[in-house]
Amino acid sequence: MNEVVIQVGPLRFTARFEDERAPATCAAFRAQLPFEGELIQARWSGEAGWSPLGDLSLGVPVENATSHPSRGDILFYQAAASETEILFPYGSTCFASKVGQLAGNHMLTLTSGHELLPELGRLVLWHGAQRIRIELAPSAQTSPGPS
């Protein structure tokens, strides 16, 4: 249950949970799967899409938090100075909001689809909101039975 498939509009990515560095965040988000929402261009963070989640609370602590994620490092931010959100960097990013710099829990890291990140940026910047779906990878949904 460590791999997920992320579909953003017509683009498909795979990612792994950062269970060792963000165990509470990964467990809480995994329980929300499949996740569906909208991914839009971030307003203050640079080259990233974000999915606003309003006042959703997963009750997770700050863990493995960063303000400077690498492209493909997906963050979960639990409402505090700003609303709850998922941040999906596709390029240079400094995670921020109208109240200033934020730090989000790095919960997922892309394992495939890096070559699609420029297209992700083009889609959210020039074509607006894109549907995002995050679900367990098919191989993670079934476990082998006894032999």
Explained architecture:
Helices cover about 15% and strands about 45% of the residues. It has three helices and eleven strands, in the order ββαββββββββαβα. The chain is mostly beta strands and about 150 residues long. It is globular. The model has no long low-confidence stretch (mean pLDDT about 95). The strands form two sheets. It has an eight-stranded antiparallel β-barrel with strand order 1-2-10-6-7-4-3-11. Strands 8-9 form a two-stranded antiparallel ribbon. Strand 6 (about 75) and strand 7 (about 85-95) form a beta hairpin.
Helical segment count = 3
The residue ranges in which pLDDT falls below 50 over 5 or more consecutive positions are: none
Q: Report the principal-axis shape.
A: globular
In round numbers, the mean pLDDT is 94
Q: Would you list the SSEs in sequence order as H and E?
A: EEHEEEEEEEEHEH
The percentage helix is: 10-25%
Total number of strands = 11
Radius of gyration: 15 Å
Q: Summarize the biggest pleated sheet.
A: 8 strands, antiparallel, barrel
The share of residues in extended strands comes to 35-45%
